[in-house]
């Protein structure tokens, strides 16, 4: 689970006479070393890797948190009313040692136990007190065989074994232990022991959740011979794209109803598209917005999921809502989908990589990217497979309305070549390493693109920020003269996405403006004649059909 957070880690484990409680600042390896020294032995426990939200990375802010050395909890999510609850608990005499919003959960549970409730009944009370999102696992020192779980708008599942049961926020964490899972719903509380699982729904009534079989190859959680997961997932892109296409195209067209039963009939009614997503997924959506218009003839609106709920959008009755998320648990995207349920949408459709996710289960129609687990924090194969899936959606919408049959056939042939083209692109590693070594010396970078390649430039800028902590921004190349050009000098590297298509000549004129100001240009293109560069480098990309 280290990819979910790596600034601190901790564990609380029932031993013979106490709960061993170990926490450390830094990566899981440091916690492993601490456990080797401490040698706690037990069969029931909770553990957590943290990505700081409330409170800086530190040992005292690391999970698990405890109250009176009796209640120990781990928590994913954000408690929005934590200041109010913290004041209430302080008035009752509880002292806080951390700056997190999670510690109050332990104290709140302890206060309920002091009032005579069991841990299970106390956890059920949280639904009336906590505002925000949470996945919680809790243990009580006086009950050494039991964990209690609670979920609200943050993923949580139970793994089923033989005389052992598990809980995690991601099935990948349990890949080597089981392939049988219960996916908890919002509002669920569960009590698990080695031999028993009880689940209670949002109304606190005992319920059952269907067993889901999720087979994850153990090598998916291993870096293999790669330096890190991101590098591994970059090289997995060709196969991931093939997996997205598998069973979805045939001959010169896309197959029927690949988005679900009745999807083609619904697509014939669609007159407008609304896309909502975050980060990398939003950039994939911005590329697709060009396709929906040019190929399917559908006007498209795209919004940040975090902003969508607050704009009071007008929704035409023939509008299809498209949400995009690798995990299917992106909080803002889920909130946008739930908000949209009360709007006038024709239907909702999700592009997602995780079949058991909230987004997949709550949407009317779905296409899984089948990219396999993505562990690297910076998205790679999820992005390219989202683009592949969105092109399949474009073709399905165009087919349903009888639009552009010749162009559809041409795009299908281009899709069939995509995995090979990506494979060839990966052979450019040495050239790209040279560029990276030069950009790494700078504090800022500018990315440029035109048309559907502008969102690709935005994704490049996002990647540079995420990975190197170098400030980077992206602009449509035509906007250079409206401000950004003033920033360009010999210290400002400029990365341009410049394929040979109808906007290539206009982009070249923009790049001449960069050259005139001494900026170092790094151009990714496939023109037959390379752009002449005094500073920088031209990377010749494999030829492909841009539709």
Automatic annotation (TrEMBL):
<keyword id="KW-0963">Cytoplasm</keyword>
<feature type="domain" description="SIS">
    <location>
        <begin position="263"/>
        <end position="403"/>
    </location>
</feature>
<dbReference type="InterPro" id="IPR005855">
    <property type="entry name" value="GFAT"/>
</dbReference>
<dbReference type="GO" id="GO:0006487">
    <property type="term" value="P:protein N-linked glycosylation"/>
</dbReference>
<keyword id="KW-0032">Aminotransferase</keyword>
<keyword id="KW-0677">Repeat</keyword>
<dbReference type="Pfam" id="PF13522">
    <property type="entry name" value="GATase_6"/>
</dbReference>
<dbReference type="InterPro" id="IPR046348">
    <property type="entry name" value="SIS_dom_sf"/>
</dbReference>
<dbReference type="InterPro" id="IPR017932">
    <property type="entry name" value="GATase_2_dom"/>
</dbReference>
<dbReference type="GO" id="GO:0006002">
    <property type="term" value="P:fructose 6-phosphate metabolic process"/>
</dbReference>
<dbReference type="GO" id="GO:0006047">
    <property type="term" value="P:UDP-N-acetylglucosamine metabolic process"/>
</dbReference>
<dbReference type="GO" id="GO:0005829">
    <property type="term" value="C:cytosol"/>
</dbReference>
<protein>
    <recommendedName>
        <fullName>Glutamine--fructose-6-phosphate aminotransferase [isomerizing]</fullName>
        <ecNumber>2.6.1.16</ecNumber>
    </recommendedName>
</protein>
<dbReference type="InterPro" id="IPR035466">
    <property type="entry name" value="GlmS/AgaS_SIS"/>
</dbReference>
<feature type="domain" description="SIS">
    <location>
        <begin position="435"/>
        <end position="547"/>
    </location>
</feature>
<dbReference type="InterPro" id="IPR047084">
    <property type="entry name" value="GFAT_N"/>
</dbReference>
<keyword id="KW-0808">Transferase</keyword>
<feature type="domain" description="Glutamine amidotransferase type-2">
    <location>
        <begin position="1"/>
        <end position="195"/>
    </location>
</feature>
<dbReference type="InterPro" id="IPR035490">
    <property type="entry name" value="GlmS/FrlB_SIS"/>
</dbReference>
<dbReference type="InterPro" id="IPR029055">
    <property type="entry name" value="Ntn_hydrolases_N"/>
</dbReference>
<dbReference type="GO" id="GO:0004360">
    <property type="term" value="F:glutamine-fructose-6-phosphate transaminase (isomerizing) activity"/>
</dbReference>
<dbReference type="Pfam" id="PF01380">
    <property type="entry name" value="SIS"/>
</dbReference>
<keyword id="KW-0315">Glutamine amidotransferase</keyword>
<dbReference type="InterPro" id="IPR001347">
    <property type="entry name" value="SIS_dom"/>
</dbReference>
<dbReference type="GO" id="GO:0097367">
    <property type="term" value="F:carbohydrate derivative binding"/>
</dbReference>
């Amino acid at each position: 689970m280290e990819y979910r957070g790596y600034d601190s880690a901790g564990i609380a484990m029932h031993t013979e006479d106490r709960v061993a409680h170990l926490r450390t600042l830094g990566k899981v390896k440091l916690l492993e070393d601490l456990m080797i020294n401490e040698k706690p032995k037990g069969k029931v426990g909770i553990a957590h890797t943290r990505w700081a939200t409330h409170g800086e990375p530190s040992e005292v802010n690391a999970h698990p948190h405890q109250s009176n050395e009796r209640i120990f909890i781990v928590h994913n999510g954000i408690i929005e009313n934590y200041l109010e609850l913290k004041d209430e608990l302080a008035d009752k005499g509880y002292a806080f040692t951390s700056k997190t919003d999670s510690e109050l959960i332990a104290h709140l549970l302890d206060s309920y136990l002091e009032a005579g409730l069991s841990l299970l009944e106390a956890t059920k009370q949280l639904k009336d007190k906590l505002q925000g999102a949470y996945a919680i696992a809790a243990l009580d020192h006086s009950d050494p065989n039991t964990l209690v779980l609670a979920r609200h708008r943050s993923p949580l599942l139970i793994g089923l074994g033989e005389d052992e049961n598990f809980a995690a926020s991601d099935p990948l964490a349990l890949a080597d232990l089981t392939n049988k899972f219960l996916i908890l719903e919002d509002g669920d509380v569960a009590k698990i022991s080695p031999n028993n699982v009880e689940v209670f729904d949002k109304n606190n009534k005992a319920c059952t959740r269907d067993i889901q079989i999720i087979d994850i190859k153990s090598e998916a959680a291993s870096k293999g011979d790669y330096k890190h997961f991101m590098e591994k997932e970059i090289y997995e892109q060709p196969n991931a794209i093939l997996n997205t296409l598998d069973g979805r195209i045939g001959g010169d067209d896309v197959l029927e109803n690949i988005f679900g039963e009745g999807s083609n009939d619904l697509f014939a009614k669609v007159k407008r598209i609304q896309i909502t997503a975050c980060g990398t997924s939003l950039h994939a959506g911005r590329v697709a917005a060009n396709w929906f218009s040019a190929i399917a003839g559908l006007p498209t609106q795209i919004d940040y999921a975090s902003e969508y709920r607050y704009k009071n959008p007008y929704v035409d009755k023939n509008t299809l809502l498209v949400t995009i998320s690798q995990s299917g648990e992106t909080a803002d995207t889920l909130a946008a989908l739930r908000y949209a349920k009360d709007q006038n949408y024709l239907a909702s459709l999700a592009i997602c990589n995780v079949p058991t996710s909230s987004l997949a289960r709550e949407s009317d129609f779905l296409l899984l990217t089948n990219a396999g687990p993505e562990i690297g924090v910076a998205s790679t194969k999820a992005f390219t497979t989202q683009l592949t899936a969105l092109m399949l959606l474009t073709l399905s919408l165009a087919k349903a309305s009888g639009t552009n049959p010749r162009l559809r056939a041409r795009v299908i042939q281009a899709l069939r070549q995509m995995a090979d083209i990506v494979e060839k692109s990966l052979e450019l590693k040495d050239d790209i390493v040279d560029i990276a070594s030069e950009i790494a010396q700078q504090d800022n970078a500018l990315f440029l693109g035109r048309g559907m390649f502008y969102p690709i430039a935005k994704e490049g800028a996002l990647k540079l920020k995420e990975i190197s902590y170098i400030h980077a921004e992206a602009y449509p190349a035509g906007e250079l003269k409206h401000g950004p050009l003033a920033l360009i000098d010999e210290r400002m590297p400029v990365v341009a996405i410049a394929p040979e298509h109808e906007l290539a000549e206009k982009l070249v004129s923009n790049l001449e403006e960069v050259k005139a100001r001494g900026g170092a240009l790094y151009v990714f293109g496939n023109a037959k004649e390379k752009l002449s560069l005094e500073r920088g480098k031209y990377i010749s990309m494999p030829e492909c059909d841009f539709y």
